[in-house]
Amino acid sequence: MEFKNHELAPFPEGKVLYERRPVRDASGAIVEGLYAAWIILDNQKQLNSYDTDMVKQVILAFRRAGNERDVVAAVFTGAGNRAFCTGGNTKEYAEYYAGRPEEYLQYMKLFNDMVTAILECDRPVVCRVNGMRIAGGQEIGMACDFSVASDLANFGQAGPKHGSAPDGGSTDFLPLLVGMERAMESLALCVPWSAYRALDYGLVTEIVPCLRVDGELVPNPFVTTDRYVDDRGRRVYGEFVGGSARVAAKETMKRGTVDLTPLDEAVDGLITKLLLTFPGCTQKTLQSARKHKRHHWDANRESNRAWLGLNMMTEAQAGFRAFNEGPRGQREIDFIDLRRRLASGQRWDEGLIDDVQPRAAGEAS
User: Fold this and answer.
1) 16-210+259-311 adopts what CATH topology?
2) How much is the pTM?
3) pLDDT-based confidence at 1, cuts 50/70/90?
């Protein structure tokens, strides 16, 4: 049979890869004629952050995955083992979009279309979390139906620390997935969560160890992986270790290597479970369940886009410039100085933005 082509445009070459990989049956054998569509953010030098062209490629990739008749599921992931995605490309934000709200409005239209393309994909979408899932990376990750993560991964938001609000999906999705109080910890305070904490909160479907030391897989040494009650009566699980434990964890990491084979096996196993269902019933189930995300997303995305555009004139301009230009280890503005200046009535202008920028030791303001 000669099928109609329903693509809007050919998929371009760039920093987003599209691969068709075989799926496996319950015995582990490759299934002939059926595939998983792997959509891979390939910008490792910038921790798989997405620029404008990449956003457009992701939109086309999810449309293609949904249209391909022999695709069982889409896998959304990042290249390498450091990050799934750390959000929008802050260099592009700082050097092009900062101070240009109308340009950023157009960019955010594309971003909104990217999130919607994930939510509307006609195939189940699995987020393969191979490392950091931060900021906008967290937002596009939560738009997926399932998340399978390396236990070395971490999850979080960065907006209020770097001049923005996590209004590209996180303020819509995170309270729905983990509850309001936990969501506030991440959204407003930018507290990072380990993969173990994310699993405990219901943010991910499954986590697997991916650090191999002396030939054996070991849990993430930077995280408490056993549940216990501390001396304040708090249930402790999935917290990042500090002090001497962190020093020991660094030594363990040096001795080991990251092996993402267990992650790939877990993703394949999930796709096998999807394979062994009625495709139409599964698609309708996803559409019905996604409505809970879509209810919040559709209600807020346009007003959020408008605010994010205007914010490029003030806090976003200051925050993205600080992240892009600040010395290593000092990528945040002087928050106390900013609050004092605003409290005294100082106007937002280039002088204010320049005055609150981070500076190397000894550098005059």
Assistant:
1) 2-enoyl-CoA Hydratase; Chain A, domain 1 (3.90.226)
2) 0.95
3) confident
